[in-house]
């Protein structure tokens, strides 16, 4: 029996049933795909504008022609409707909404708590550990620069706890004057706490108070004839004064973000300048998706609503355009953050200069993005011609293997599309169960794990599969795809050329059964090399993290009955792990707290 044809959506009849309450409306097409999410202070009035107007802009008419169903959610206030709209857009990603594509969590500086000697660290992710979090910062670079500065100024430790607990002598950071050696008791708890307090004050923006305290300390040291200490504090004060003069924003005592937008060639760039406690934290650029023609004011309104949905909200937001519902948006952000939020569009003095700076940054980033996209489009078209494809590839994947003499083998998979790298689709595979150093087995395992999902109908198929390696590695890809019954994917091996020089790579075209040398002027080879290099970088960084994690973890941590104190006692008694490994059971028993049974377990664990 044939299904009955679906009836066209009668928007006019639907509008007659609507309430005048505030709420959110959602449009769906015939296949059930979400087209658009919108909010309204008066649902009946807002939704009727789509169906009762005699003439509409072509872009709106194109969306309305696809509407097959409309769903309504009533809210108590227009502010609640605005919040729900932002949540739905971020979660459901409707086709015709402006969408902020920013899937990265923001980095923070973390100061650990509940410890005798707290540590400073880079942090990204859930903030559920005891201690304080300072930020968010616009980039990982900004955090690392700040941590580097903290290490020079206040010398608070930044090492991992496992490293800190097992030291028997100070590390290199102490030797170069960037740590005070708390791991081996070279600084008192009170003096260390004083350094930690200065760090907190500085990160809170109270650098002036820190300078005042240090000046007093310098004078006291000088009065007691401790001139070496006085000179060290003097240099510290000088560095702080210089930094304070460079980064302090006059008049910006509250937290402030300055936001500007530029649109060109169907691409939007939103540039944000971050200021916290009068300190400039740098800038960050965003490129929201524009499914419909939009004005900068439309983009800014959606950006503010989506961006601050799950992030700390500053007390002041300066915009380059007047936006709709600015008062309602400010009330929503104030309710969410628990403090007043002042959204301004007309500013003077230094704030006007900051806004001009944000606008210049947005224009420069947009120009660079357009040029990069045009170059990338040319490279994709050249790769299409090189491979003889009917259309340019939409998804390119590349696999690479990284290890150190077979240790901690990691395979990487990076993904490129017409707009460049799609980092949310990157994957790493920790390789296990193979002969160390067997790159063919590692590649076979990684490809099998990746394409098994494709064979089961779950994963996304690439158009082109790049393999960093020669014929042997390419054969692994052929075997995996053949075993899984997957066809229609172009496989290309990327073999290094003579002397391993860039631009002289050999491309192994599996479907054509031949090898080619495109040459250093080929746009297609530039694209392939860029994807290959990114895969190589991603594999190496994953391998290093895995190797360092394995090396930082002591084998003694896995021995039942050996806690932090006994582990430290063992390492001190024998001068390190190598000495513990060389010791026999009787020698291990000489360490306080180690009986024969425990000594035998330690010996067995180290000689398994």
Report on the structure:
- The chain is an alpha+beta fold and 608 residues long.
- It folds into 5 domains: 87 residues, GIY-YIG endonuclease (3-Layer(aba) Sandwich); 141 residues, no CATH class; 113 residues, UvrC, RNAse H endonuclease domain (Nucleotidyltransferase, domain 5); 154 residues, Nucleotidyltransferase, domain 5 (2-Layer Sandwich), CATH 3.30.420.340; 53 residues, 5' to 3' exonuclease, C-terminal subdomain (DNA polymerase, domain 1).
- Helix content is 44%, strand content 18%.
- The protein contains 20 helices and 19 strands.
- Strands 12, 13, 14, 15, 16, 17, 18 and 19 form an 8-stranded mixed β-sheet that branches.
- Helix 13 crosses helix 16.
- The longest helix is centred in the middle third of the chain and has 39 residues.
- The N terminus is likely disordered.
- One of its GO terms (molecular function) is excinuclease ABC activity.
- It is found in: Cytoplasm.
- This is UvrABC system protein C.
- Interacts with UvrB in an incision complex.
- Belongs to the UvrC family.
């Amino acid at each position: 029996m044939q299904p009955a044809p679906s009836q066209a959506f009668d928007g006019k009849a639907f509008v007659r049933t609507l309430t005048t309450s505030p709420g959110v409306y959602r449009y769906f097409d015939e296949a059930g795909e979400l087209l658009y999410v919108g909010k309204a202070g008066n649902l009946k009035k807002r939704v009727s504008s789509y169906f009762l107007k005699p003439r509409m802009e072509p872009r709106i008419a194109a969306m309305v022609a696809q509407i097959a169903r409309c769903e309504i959610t009533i809210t108590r206030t227009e502010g609640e409707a605005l919040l729900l709209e932002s949540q739905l857009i971020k979660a459901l990603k409707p086709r015709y909404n402006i969408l902020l594509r920013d899937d990265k969590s923001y980095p923070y500086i973390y100061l650990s708590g509940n410890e005798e000697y707290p540590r400073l660290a880079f942090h990204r992710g859930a903030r559920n550990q005891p201690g304080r979090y300072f930020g968010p910062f616009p980039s990982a670079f900004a955090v690392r620069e700040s941590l580097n500065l903290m290490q020079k100024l206040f010398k608070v430790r930044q090492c991992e706890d496992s490293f800190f607990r097992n030291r028997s002598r100070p590390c290199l950071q102490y030797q170069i004057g960037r740590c005070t050696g708390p791991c081996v008791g070279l600084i008192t708890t009170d003096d260390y706490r004083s350094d930690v307090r200065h760090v907190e004050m500085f990160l809170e923006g109270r650098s002036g108070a820190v300078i005042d305290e240090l000046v007093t300390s310098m004078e006291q040291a000088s009065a007691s004839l401790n001139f070496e200490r006085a000179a060290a504090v003097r240099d510290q004060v000088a560095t702080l004064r210089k930094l304070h003069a460079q980064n302090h924003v006059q008049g910006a005592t509250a937290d402030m973000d300055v936001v500007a937008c530029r649109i060109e060639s169907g691409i939007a760039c939103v540039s944000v300048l971050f200021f916290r406690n009068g300190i400039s934290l740098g800038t960050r650029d965003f490129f929201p998706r524009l499914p419909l023609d939009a004005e900068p004011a439309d983009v800014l309104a959606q950006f503010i609503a989506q961006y601050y949905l799950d992030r700390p909200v500053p007390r002041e937001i300066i915009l380059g355009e007047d936006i709709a519902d600015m008062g309602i948006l400010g009330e929503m952000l104030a309710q969410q953050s628990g403090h007043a939020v002042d959204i301004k569009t007309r500013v003077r003095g230094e704030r006007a200069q900051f806004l001009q700076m944000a606008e210049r940054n947005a224009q420069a980033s947009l120009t660079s993005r357009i040029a990069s996209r045009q170059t990338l489009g040319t490279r994709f078209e050249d790769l299409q011609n090189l491979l003889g494809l009917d259309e340019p590839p939409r998804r390119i994947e590349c696999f690479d293997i990284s290890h150190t003499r077979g240790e901690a083998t990691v395979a990487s998979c990076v993904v490129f599309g017409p707009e460049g790298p799609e980092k949310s689709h990157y994957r790493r595979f920790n390789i296990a169960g193979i002969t160390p150093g067997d790159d063919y087995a590692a590649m076979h395992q990684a490809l099998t794990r990746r394409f098994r999902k494709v064979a089961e109908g779950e994963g996304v198929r690439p158009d082109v599969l790049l393999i960093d390696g020669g014929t042997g590695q390419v054969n692994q890809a052929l075997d995996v795809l053949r075993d899984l019954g997957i066809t229609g994917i172009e496989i290309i091996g990327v073999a290094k050329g003579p002397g391993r020089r860039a631009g002289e790579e050999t491309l192994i075209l599996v479907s054509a059964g031949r090898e080619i040398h495109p040459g250093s002027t080929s746009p297609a080879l530039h694209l392939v090399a860029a994807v290959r290099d990114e895969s190589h970088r991603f594999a190496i960084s994953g391998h290093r993290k895995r190797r360092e994690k394995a090396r930082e973890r002591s084998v003694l941590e896995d021995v039942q009955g050996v806690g932090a104190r006994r582990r430290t006692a063992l390492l001190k008694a024998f001068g390190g792990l190598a000495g513990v490994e060389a010791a026999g059971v009787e020698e291990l028993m000489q360490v306080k707290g180690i009986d024969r049974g425990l000594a035998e377990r330690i010996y067995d664990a180290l000689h398994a």
